[in-house]
Amino acid sequence: MRPSENLFAYVIVGDSQVPRLNHSLEFLKRFVRCEVVVVAGRCNAPIQHDQIIRPSVEACFDDHQASILLKTNLHRVLGVWDKPSFTGCYLDSDVIAVSPEASNIFSRKNGPVTFAADHTRLARFSRFAVRCFCIAGECDHLRQGIRDKFGIEVAEPDWQHWNGGVYLFDAESSDFLDTWHDMTSRIFGDPFWKTRDQGTLIATAWKHGLERQPTLDRNFNYIVDPMRGLSDRERKGILPPGYTIDASYSLSGDSGLSRPYFLHMINGAIGASGWKNWDDAASLVARMKSCTTAQVGSASGCRTEPSGQRSSHLYAKN
Question: Which among 38, 130, 153, 164 is placed 20 to 30 Å from 64, CA to CA?
């Protein structure tokens, strides 16, 4: 990999994530011309891409834990932590590009790292990051857990935290990402903490004094939640036709509505036929298939680079 490249990168561990990844790759390739690499551990299912890093993963981590450790250590897995001209963009496998404007994300790097805001605030997110007895609404247990585990005071109980599904990184990001990786590895095995990376992302942001760090425009990580407004009981067994429809944006440029560049379809909604938000995105790609490759890539400033295979290794953190 040449140090001047812009690069999109995915991380998955386990075959269960491959169908979702393949959907995301199809969308990305329709709208941008840029190098893309997939970091894939414990995967035997076919990945619709040719530039793949296949790390060995320590057996002590389950698939979810391993994928988070690779994600938070991505700068070192890719070997780009010391390349000053490099800019990388991590994408969760449930993020899909829906506009050629997606390639402009690389110009939005600001500060050591750049994330987008989450769709909720800290107090409401809290019970999804730690195992408390709260069953609805807001709580303060995540903030207390960060203080008890890491000695970090998050001074704002309802701080607007970041979403980890899309982030920009470069040579300036190493200290931040190393901290995030270390803190995340420390919560594994702690029964109070759920296997997630956003709680430790909050802790890392405050440890590094980045609580006022500017975030990406929402259109670069437009979160669409099919479970929005549904209680825990209502979510059980629900099928795509019953998912909550997000009518706040348009993929056809309707006046007065947002026009996202990336959609982040959380809670397992990628590929959910019968849910309007997914069906609209799938229809967009179906229309794009009738366009030529030149038309698809004309609005992008990224290059197409030769493909290749690389290898890496994930080391356990004690």
Answer: 153
